[in-house]
């Protein structure tokens, strides 16, 4: 069955960095677009980034462009989200989802606080 398992969430100070991982299984990862989405406290879902199977055209929403980097390892079936220069407003639960947005991970908490 399809499984997506995020990890790497933590408490970090403003300006800090963090890398999230999402381990995938149960489908052909190397042929699937992958998304990172977040939900901040009291807010709706926000799509952050998507990466194509060949990592040629990653997309970022304006709020994270220049600070976040999506990448993938098709040999390990893992998609990453490297987050730099973190801000208080980046506090959220971060989810990965596969291209059809039909399967999501359980989420990992990122808290940016002094």
Distance between the termini: 40 Å
Total beta strand runs: 10
Q: Give the overall average pLDDT.
A: 97
Low-confidence stretches: none
Could you describe the largest sheet, including whether it forms a barrel? 6 strands, mixed
Query: Looking at the structure, what is the overall shape?
Result: globular
Q: State the helicity in percent bands.
A: under 10%
Strand content: over 45%
Descriptive notes:
- The structure is a single chain.
- The protein has 114 residues and is mainly beta.
- The protein contains no helices and ten strands.
- It has strands at 3-7, 11-12, 18-25, 34-39, 45-51, 59-60, 68-73, 78-83, 92-98, 108-112.
- Strands 2-10-9-4-5-6 form a six-stranded mixed beta sheet, with no helix packed on it. Strands 1-3-8-7 form a four-stranded antiparallel beta sheet, with no helix packed on it.
- The radius of gyration is 13 Å and the shape is globular.
- It starts with a strand and ends with a strand.
- The model has no long low-confidence stretch (mean pLDDT 97).
Blueprint of the fold:
Layout: E1 3-7, E2 11-12, E3 18-25, E4 34-39, E5 45-51, E6 59-60, E7 68-73, E8 78-83, E9 92-98, E10 108-112
Parallel strand pairs: 2-10
Antiparallel strand pairs: 1-3, 3-8, 4-5, 4-9, 5-6, 7-8, 9-10
């Amino acid at each position: 069955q399809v499984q997506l398992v995020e990890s790497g969430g933590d408490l970090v100070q403003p300006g800090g960095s963090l890398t999230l991982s999402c381990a995938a299984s149960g489908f052909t990862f190397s042929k699937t677009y992958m998304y990172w989405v977040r939900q901040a406290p009291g807010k709706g879902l926000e799509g952050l980034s998507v990466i194509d199977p060949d990592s040629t055209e990653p997309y970022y929403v304006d709020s994270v462009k220049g600070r976040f980097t999506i990448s993938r390892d098709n040999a390990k079936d893992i998609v990453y989200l490297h987050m730099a220069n973190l801000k208080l407003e980046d506090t959220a639960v971060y989810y990965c989802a596969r291209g059809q947005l039909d399967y999501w991970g359980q989420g990992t908490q990122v808290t940016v606080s002094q």
